[in-house]
Amino acid sequence: MLGTPGAATRSREFRAFGEAEMESDLEALKQHWLTTRSFADEQAYLAARVRLNDAQFVSLDADGTLEPWLAAVIRYPTGVVYSTQCAGVSTEERFIEGYLVLLGGSKYEAQDEKIEVSALTDVFHDGDACMWSWKGHDLPDERLRKLTHLVEQIPYWRTGAEGDARYQICIDRDRAGEIAEAWIPIETPDGPGVLLYKNCD
What we know:
about 200 residues, alpha+beta, 2 domains, two-stranded antiparallel ribbon, about 30% helix, globular
């Protein structure tokens, strides 16, 4: 006489069913993003990957105690998803899959100018007030021009067969709608990425 499945067996079956359902939902999110190519759909997909442990996850400056820092994450299917806080006092958490490139400390020489992370932060501030709504296409034109100039002064180094070489990065105008304090979409010699630095809040 065949016995009925025990509690452990039923638990495994339910868990397997739940995992299959989550994988199906994740694939649906991925396909939706690949169809729309929208930033919001990409963020929903990457957030779900993190939530379901589908990728290695790194939270940059998780406790907010790092000194001012500057880095880029270059988009690439590494299986590593980075998160960072951005957009000033609205404190958005955003995600990007790729690899991290350190761009220097909080202060260094770039051509004949001194570049500080605070200069990037100031673009999104009016005096002491954080203008958190200055995002994407709502960033005033004069602030966008200033941001463009600052970004183009940041050195990006690559090592090739002939040694180290310095390159220029620039704002990715096709993704300008993503712009927020501490999250600047960029083009680099290694492909598209995001310029990241310490958020004001």
